[in-house]
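Here is one chain, start to finish.
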Amino acid sequence: MSADVLIHDRGLTKLPDDVVRLATVRVLDAGHNQIAEVTALPEVTDFLYLHDNRIRSIPFRTLGRLKYLNLGDNPLDPLGDEIAVMGARLPRAVLGVNLWACANEEFDF
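Its structure:
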């Protein structure tokens, strides 16, 4: 049985190790924190909310069954081919309202 991990609005600067070590998570909500780096994620099957953090990138290798992804309000680096392949079968992804830096100018989409 997979877990729902609700750790939003806690001032976290990283995902807790015990969360990353979980085998499977149905819902992972770590939004509205201060997380800057995500180096590993458990397998998340349904909903991954990482909105409103300081995240530049995430690993997509454990997100093959994901149904909803929200990375909005993060200073994301340009996303690579992993998200393009994943996006073909991902029902819903929110990547907008991110701060993009370009030649010393900032644009908020």
